[in-house]
Design goal:
79 residues; mainly beta; two-stranded antiparallel ribbon
Length: 79
């Protein structure tokens, strides 16, 4: 990891550290056919908040969102 930037957060006297991954070593079976990392194959965990941990499971893969493909929405549309 390479340090890119430190941002002071005055509200709670902390720092946000921004880094750049220089090297990542993974087992080959953790990459899909497009080269994306399959987090569900790493037996890793995710975190929500300060003390809630979750197992990671891949549910579905969607195409990359592109601005040119956003549908038109009606202004008076009821939800």
């Amino acid at each position: 990891m390479k340090l890119v930037e430190e941002i002071d957060i005055k509200a709670n006297d902390t720092k946000l550290i921004v880094g750049e991954i220089q090297e990542l070593i993974l087992p080959e079976d953790c990459l899909d056919d497009k080269g994306y990392v399959r987090l569900d194959r790493l037996f890793d965990v995710g975190i929500g908040g300060l003390n809630s941990y979750y197992s990671l499971r891949r549910m579905k893969s969607f195409p990359y969102a592109r601005v040119s493909e956003v549908p038109e929405f009606s202004v008076g549309m009821k939800l």
